[in-house]
Amino acid sequence: MEFVVFTITALIAVVGAAAMLLSKNAVHSALFMLLNFSAIAVLYLLLRAPFLFAVQLIVYAGAIIVLFLFVVMLLGAERAEDEQDRLGWQRPLALGMAALLLFEVLYVFFARTNTSLTSPSVSAEDFATPVKIGEALFSTYLLPFEITSVILLAALVGVVVLHHRQAAHSEQ
Amino acid sequence: MVPVSYYVLLSAVLFTLGVVGVLTRRNALIVFMSVEMMLNSANLALVAFAQRWQSANGQILVFFVITVAAAEVAVGLALLVTIFRSKRTTDIDEINTLKG
Q: For residue A13, how many C-alpha atoms fall within 13 Å in the half-sphere facing its CB?
């Protein structure tokens, strides 16, 4: 049963990612990326990570997609790419090298896994409940957690500074 | 119980699709979305490994990655808007002022 759910969700994720790459309209791309993010959230649930399921839905599917949609619509950049293709011979080269990268990653992973990654040694259901993650965040990982808050503050200040500068520039 | 290697396979495929997006699309917003997808695929692999070793540490790393990605998206999109105000385009082939 779990395998069926995994297969369907993985297919949705891959199809969403491919459709994001192929669609000409950037708004459609953002919505296909929402599909991809939601599928990955379901996979987190399958991997017994309910906390990350919620975080993925709130931060990625909620905040980040909305931010992307806002910017795409603000800039009117739905069809920013003109028809003339300047890539030329570089496009097949890019596809070939990406395929090589995929092959290489899979080869390195599967050739070097000597331990059996087939199934967990014990299958505890509650190794990463939100309670345990919260306890670890506020004890073992307290310093990284605080640094994260500084990063978010820096991003906030950076966005305000960027906007302030362009507002001052447009007044002149 | 789905084997962890299936998740790693899916993660590698999604990462490669992200790489293809970065290399072949010229709309800066879609390039940015592809970068987000690569981050997401790495997160998926991390969560799969965390489940394999029955440890919460991998999930905490994913939590930090998501936080940094959110900050990155905010700053990156602000930069894109600023570039658009001066260049009137989001085509990354047009944004070549620094090119020698």
A: 29
